[in-house]
Amino acid sequence: MRILLTNDDGVYAPGLRALRAELKKIGTVTVVAPAGEQSAVGHSITLLAPLLVQEVLDENNEPMGWAVEGRPADCVKLALLELLDEPPDVVISGLNAGSNAGINVLYSGTVAAAIEGAFFRKTSIAVSLEYTKPKPLDFARAAQLARNVIEQLLDHPIAEGALFNVNIPSLEKGPIRGIRVVPQNVAAYTETYDRRVDPRGRVYFWSGPDFRCPDPHPDTDVFALAEGYITVTPLQFNLTQAATLETMRAWKWH
Amino acid sequence: MRILLTNDDGVYAPGLRALRAELKKIGTVTVVAPAGEQSAVGHSITLLAPLLVQEVLDENNEPMGWAVEGRPADCVKLALLELLDEPPDVVISGLNAGSNAGINVLYSGTVAAAIEGAFFRKTSIAVSLEYTKPKPLDFARAAQLARNVIEQLLDHPIAEGALFNVNIPSLEKGPIRGIRVVPQNVAAYTETYDRRVDPRGRVYFWSGPDFRCPDPHPDTDVFALAEGYITVTPLQFNLTQAATLETMRAWKWH
């Protein structure tokens, strides 16, 4: 099995290194990942600037793949269109430092990279690790758990271009309680900004750290993850609101 | 009616100026938009850097709103949480220079700003103008067409947080053929990269200009827009693949 591995934390991030070590047990892994951290960049792509590309070695000085001075989605595009000699069987994005559940799925560069893989009709899986305290995180243990889920996903007959979002709960909350298949929570998060004035009198705002989802629906990724379950959510990228579409087609337009 | 107007082309972009002039006929418009161009940034948000904010005047030196050194989605968040004295009735994003149909909906900063408005349960509308040749575009005429569609949307009983994506066809293709309510096309685009070597021997890639959707489904935004129709697509931001979810819940997980 040929695996394309990417992320949004950067090519040398410990989460990617740990996941690569696990994925090498089940396939041939090529990394094409951003040169630096690209968190919360969503589905950004680079149309108006050059994408510098450099071959990179792993911690044992073995060839690992490429670092791209671009976004996670750029990495997947470039890998599939230019860099890889043979197309991968699966695109995996992670292991992200921080969960990507609820509406954060839309902000996430990790998930966007997997969506980009699905655009190309590749089976694509985003994998993230919740953290509840500052790092360091136990990526090695989390990557084992991630591999177990990935193997189970790939053991089933799945459609071409199937897309999955996997979250591993913080390992500091105690033993993993199991695996739950759950939809994305759609409630908004509680957010705050801190208003400040710079030394030249200009106003600026910092996004506050209290980015929380106060009351998630019980049958969702945010809820199950908080309860200590690994969550698996099948995703799609058709944003059409189908029910409303039918209603609106009956309107008289002028 | 109170209207929050944003975009991804920047606070001084001609498309925003033209749309603002039209929207002032139907409501009180406050602009909160990026200080500079932010195209194809998707649903990026700024968590790790300060968001500088500056009040801006319009072409007649009248107060217009705020410029934010951030992403389109940051602008909507900041407007709703910090900058506006009163909550808006509707969030409008545009008028974008370039269409946002098909999978481009996911790359688009214009649409992401509208999705962000919907996160806050505000009626939100993204509006884009296709171009088939280099600028300048007839934004004044396109903004009239956009206002007509926006007024019709708001005349109907729509759910809290309803979200719409509107595209105006290139006005150089001839008369507008009408308004079509259509789903998002989901096919991938044809893309190319141009491989080059910099003066220091480093490899880089430029995204090519032939970013096309070769064979869109007839009942989609991409197709109808190409045919010269204004397209209206109701959107949602739950990416869960519901049918697959039910199948996967029956799997034996271990």
Q: Please, could you describe this protein's structure?
A:
2 copies of one chain form a homodimer. By secondary structure, the first copy, chain A, is of the alpha/beta class. Chain A is built from 7 helices and 11 strands. In chain A, the strands form 2 sheets. A 9-stranded mixed sheet of chain A has the order 3-4-2-1-5-6-7-11-8, with helices on both faces. The first copy, chain A, is globular. Chain A starts with a strand and ends in a 5-residue tail after the last helix.
Give the key terms:
homodimer; 254 residues; 9-stranded mixed sheet; alpha/beta
Give a quick summary of the entry:
The first copy, chain A, has 254 residues and is of the alpha/beta class. Helices cover 27% and strands 26% of the residues of chain A. The first copy, chain A, starts with a strand and ends in a 5-residue tail after the last helix.
Rg over C-alpha atoms of chain A, rounded to the nearest angstrom:
19 Å
User: Biggest sheet of chain A, in brief?
Assistant: 9 strands, mixed
Order of secondary-structure elements of chain A:
EHEEEHEHHEHEEEEHEH
Count of strand segments of chain A: 11
The biggest chain-chain interface is: A-B, 75 and 75 residues
- Separation, N- and C-terminal Cα atoms of chain A: 54 Å
**Can you tell me the overall shape of chain A?**
globular
pLDDT average of chain A, as an integer? 95
Question: What are the SSEs and their pairings?
Answer:
Two copies of one chain form a homodimer.
Chain A: E1 2-6, H1 14-23, E2 28-34, E3 51-57, E4 63-68, H2 72-83, E5 90-97, H3 104-107, H4 109-119, E6 123-129, H5 139-155, E7 163-168, E8 179-181, E9 193-197, E10 203-207, H6 221-226, E11 230-235, H7 242-249
Parallel strand pairs in A: 1-2, 1-5, 2-4, 5-6, 6-7, 8-11
Antiparallel strand pairs in A: 3-4, 7-11, 9-10
